[in-house]
TrEMBL record:
Highest taxon, organism lineage: Bacteria
Entry annotation: catalytic residues: 14 (tele-phosphohistidine intermediate), 87 (proton donor/acceptor)
Any one Gene Ontology molecular-function term assigned to this protein's record: fructose-2,6-bisphosphate 2-phosphatase activity
GO biological process, one term: regulation of pentose-phosphate shunt
SMART domains assigned to the protein according to its UniProt record, in alphabetical order: PGAM (SM00855)
Keywords, sorted A to Z: Hydrolase
Alphabetized SUPFAM superfamilies for the sequence: Phosphoglycerate mutase-like
Alphabetical list of PANTHER family matching this protein: FRUCTOSE-2,6-BISPHOSPHATASE TIGAR
Binding site for substrate: 13-20, 63
Gene Ontology CC annotations of this record: cytosol
Name this protein carries in UniProt: Phosphoglycerate mutase GpmB
Coiled-coil stretches noted in the UniProt entry, renumbered to this chain: none
Organism: Desulfolithobacter dissulfuricans
One Pfam family from the record: His_Phos_1
Length: 209
């Protein structure tokens, strides 16, 4: 019998960036948090202080680091960064706005979308590859810090891949939307396996316009 205590992982994406507001694809490129994004991260720190976290694990991209810095002004936790938690590499589509992408590459985008897990931007990586490295990072964290509660700050692409995998989704356009706004999603690592406890367990605060 495995008596190792389970590890709890709470996944959130980084706060809003300038490129998010421009509807511009970031991928492995970076954009700083916007004024609203910085407000969001500070609010999240106060909101998440109601949960007994032990540490933070985060993507090493700048927007995740900036979010962690602001959240952690309240939480004051030890932080580890892992490059495996970076956003999906969107290759040659990185830096384009979504309207530009649709106007210039409509047929290619539609064809890739029908591939589900095998969606791959030109010169980028597939969702399967994102899933593999993200799961490896989370499983390693679960084994490294048994019994702890870890706040994971990463990206929408990572979170979608992990949750869709655990829910056996096909990642196709006609599936109902799962992630809504900025949420906290709870996982548990036990008996060498990641399981989903609750998607959208908490909706994170956003500034009132």
């Amino acid at each position: 019998m495995n008596n190792t205590p389970p590890t709890t992982l709470g996944l959130i994406r980084h706060a809003r960036t300038l490129w998010n507001e421009e509807r511009r694809i970031q991928g492995r490129l970076n954009s700083r948090l916007s004024t609203v994004g910085r407000q969001m991260a500070r609010m999240w720190g106060r909101q998440l202080a109601d949960c007994p976290w032990d540490r933070i694990l985060a993507s090493d991209l700048g927007r995740a680091r900036e979010t962690v810095e602001l959240v952690n002004t309240t939480l004051d936790l030890e932080v580890d960064f892992d490059g495996r938690l970076r956003e999906q590499d969107w290759g040659r589509w990185s830096g384009l706005t979504f309207p530009e992408l649709s106007n210039r590459f409509r047929d290619r985008v539609q064809a890739e979308g029908k591939k589900g897990w095998d969606f791959r931007p030109p010169g980028g990586e597939s969702r399967r590859e994102v899933l593999a490295r993200t799961m490896a990072a989370l499983e390693e964290a679960g084994g490294r810090w048994p019994g702890q509660r870890i706040l994971v700050v990463c990206h929408e692409g990572n979170i979608k891949c992990v949750l869709y995998h655990l829910l056996a989704r096909k990642f196709l356009p006609d599936e109902p939307r799962l992630l809504r706004g900025y949420g906290l999603h709870m996982l548990e690592y036990r008996r060498d396996k990641l399981v989903l406890r609750q998607a959208n367990a908490l909706f994170l605060d956003t500034p009132t316009p």
